[in-house]
Fold:
Amino acid sequence: MWTFVSPRVIVFGDDALTFLEGEKASKVLIVTDGTIIKLGFVDVVKNNIKAERIEVFSEVEPEPSIETVLKCSEVARELQPDLIVAVGGGSVMDVAKAARVLMEVDVDPVAITPFTNLSEYGYKKKAKLIAIPTTSGTGADATWAIVLTDKKESRKLTPANKELVPDVTILDYSLVTNMPKKLVSGTGFDALTHAIEGYVSIWRNDFSDALCEKAVEMILRNLEKSYNGDVEARAKMHIAATMAGLGFGNSQVGLAHSLGHSFGGVFRLHHGLCVGVFLPYVMQFYLKSDAKARMDFLARKVGLADAEDLIEKIMALMKSVEMPTRLSEIITKKDFDENLERLIMNTMNDPSLGMSPRVPDVEQTKAIYQYAFEGKRIDF
Amino acid sequence: MAVVYPSVDWLNELLRVVNSDATYKKVAANWEGDFLCVVEMDQEALKDFQKPKILRGLISLFAAIPKDKRVAFKGTPTEKFVQKLGIALDQDIDLSKLDYEEMARKVAEIKLDEIKGASTYIWLDFWHGELRNAKPVAPGEVLSPRFTLTGPYAAFKEVVSGKVDTTTQIVRGKLKLRGDLGYMMRNAAAVTRFGQLMSSIPIET
Structure:
């Protein structure tokens, strides 16, 4: 038995936000961050919703901490909203997804696992959750996973449960039209990593394959154009990110995410940058596994010869959207050496590793970090 | 060395493989927590136990539980199952003297409905990079394990043979896991490595 999980409704288009006009709620909690408020997006959302009371929680930081989730859930417990609206990037949506559960049940956020039966804790899903992404990459509007930072241990943790999936996702292109270029590339590579890892995951299935394949095709065709300001390509990327989310959300990610979670947790870096920089190295590592045939097939789907060709194409795309292609472009050798042992152990402890088509041992993980630091091709 | 699953030999091999693995020692250095695996009899089990050597493995587990502890099976479907094989709970069991061919024939006559709920309980005690103990236990003997993994024999067999990993079986709904799930998520490396080691043991069929 396997299941496919997704939001009940996906609204998309230039005017997708008008969907909110049909929403009626007594109490609404909007979860967002300071930047989104400044951009005026929260006002737009407020103006579209009919509600007796609307509260805004805007304290979500990039790569949000467990403490922030608990703080947001306290606000939610106090308000008892029947509608939660997340307006922002992956960090905002992840906090909102967790807060919806934690406003009802008293549980350690990290204990929200794929194996946790939340109804046994008394979870009744009292609030509807609408996700409105303002970046095009995380797919958090369509997935059952969240990424939180444990500040004490400097590591990322990934609670996941089918009950976390938003009910509605609204993809309004106007919200991403003016996205900064750096965010376009970082989140774009997050989406590409989702699509490729979801496609080769050991939990892949026919539904996730279809979505991941299409997402890879759309991203390879549109990311560079979007980065260069093409509005239509930007809209396509917004769709592709959610499509990749639907794909990998139902097959899970793998080694690139385990390395990226570890790297991002230790150095407090943007998630998309971290997973994206490892993507080509991980694909090279997968060349000596069953995943090679999958990547060959995927390459041919997008008009390339084989997996090697696909990796080269991705490396070229990284350069064209100013993504770093090696860790030494992001951190110093001293920082790398001082933290290597911790990076390795956090990678080994990342749950996504288990879904990789080829799981590295401790020595191989160390070597992957070293090769990625120096920009060397993985040859083992 | 290939061993029969389930059996005491398999548990001993598991102890040897885990405790001699340097990677496990390293990634599980901070792990504290035991598992109780509840393996429920199913149609696949009834099929496998018609093979005398596999049945011998199962009985070796039952025999390894001290007689005074075995009384905990009284009135359970497990007692009914062993009774059908001609074994009493309080019996001294000499594995070398049992007629497995004859017992296997008796298994062939058992309908699953008659013994539904019959289970084998395996306790795995992990502590700071070591598998301190791996043994069959009686119901109620391990009172509060940190984790309990429950499911039909066929689902466990797929994990042990390396066809599917434990996490996948749980997500597929074939195995049920209870316990300190947050702790497990924080220490995924220990769980993953243990799974790799367990499935590396060749199974004699």
